[in-house]
Design goal:
By secondary structure, the chain is mostly helical. Helices cover about 60% and strands about 10% of the residues.
């Protein structure tokens, strides 16, 4: 369902997923381009009506949080990116990510090695 959201709704939803929780002002401040509080409230209300966001009263107004598990949303977004830009190849996407020049910690390198070993073992 997330991929079918209009661009602005998807942007607000993804921002809220990144924040995990946020007020209207918090979401607005985290966006890359400026929207009014009114526009953010409208977009959050639309997302709430679609069952993607829930809200509760907080000391600074309503606090919003995404309803689906962030990991599920991230997996879907990553799969769309792999399909779109890497012809469905997770290995090509991983190679591109590793080629971006960020240094891996020993723990990250070990986790990647385990994930590769597990992926190879799953092959028929």
């Amino acid at each position: 369902m997330i991929e079918s959201l209009p661009r602005r709704e998807r942007e607000v939803f993804e921002t809220l997923c990144r924040l995990e929780t946020g007020t209207t002002a918090g979401v607005r401040n985290a966006l890359t381009d400026t929207l009014s509080d009114s526009a953010i409230r409208t977009l959050l209300a639309r997302l709430e009506s679609k069952g993607l966001v829930e809200r509760e009263a907080g000391t600074d107004g309503f606090v919003y949080r995404p309803v689906p598990r962030t990991e599920t949303v991230a997996a879907g977004a990553l799969q769309r990116m792999i399909d779109t830009f890497f012809a469905g190849s997770a290995a090509s996407a991983a190679t591109a990510l590793l080629g971006m020049g960020q240094r891996l910690t020993p723990d990250e390198a070990a986790a990647l090695e385990r994930a590769i070993d597990e992926a190879v073992e799953r092959q028929p």
